[in-house]
């Protein structure tokens, strides 16, 4: 699937600064579990449904995001020699994402570089 050839992942969260390290550790544990194939089918189904819903909501309500998504689809199509008529199939690529696909994707992500940025509130 050309839509999953180039990968990146962002994880953002807000929490009590005293619990930041604890939360970061929990996130890395969850990511490692996915890479090992420990993926709850029900949670994956909900996540896919949520991703599709957000894609359509963003396209409907946010012109900038809509253009950004369209550009990324076109770039992906060009880079991967995919017909532009195929770019509207991205939501279906998400729908058909299997547990094995997700395991493979996250495993590939873990082999790359990562950056961890933690912002703490200004002390008063």
Topology:
Elements: H1 20-35, H2 41-61, H3 63-79, H4 90-95, H5 99-110
Helix pairs in contact: 1-5, 2-3
What are the salient characteristics of this protein?
globular; 124 residues; 0% strand
- Spatial separation of the terminal alpha carbons: 50 Å
Helix content: 55-70%
Instruction: Sketch the major β-sheet.
Output: none
Structural class: mainly alpha
Shape type: globular
Number of helices: 5
On the 0 to 100 scale, the average pLDDT is: 76
Order of helices and strands: HHHHH
Strand content: under 5%
Rg: 17 Å
Regions with little confidence, pLDDT below 50 for 5+ residues:
none
Number of strands: 0
Q: What would you say this structure looks like, in words?
A:
The model has no long low-confidence stretch (mean pLDDT 76). This protein is mainly alpha-helical and 124 residues long. Helix 1 (20-35) crosses helix 5 and helix 2 (41-61) crosses helix 3 (63-79). The termini are far apart. It contains five helices and no strands.
Summarize the structure.
The chain contains five helices and no strands. The protein has about 120 residues and is mainly alpha-helical.
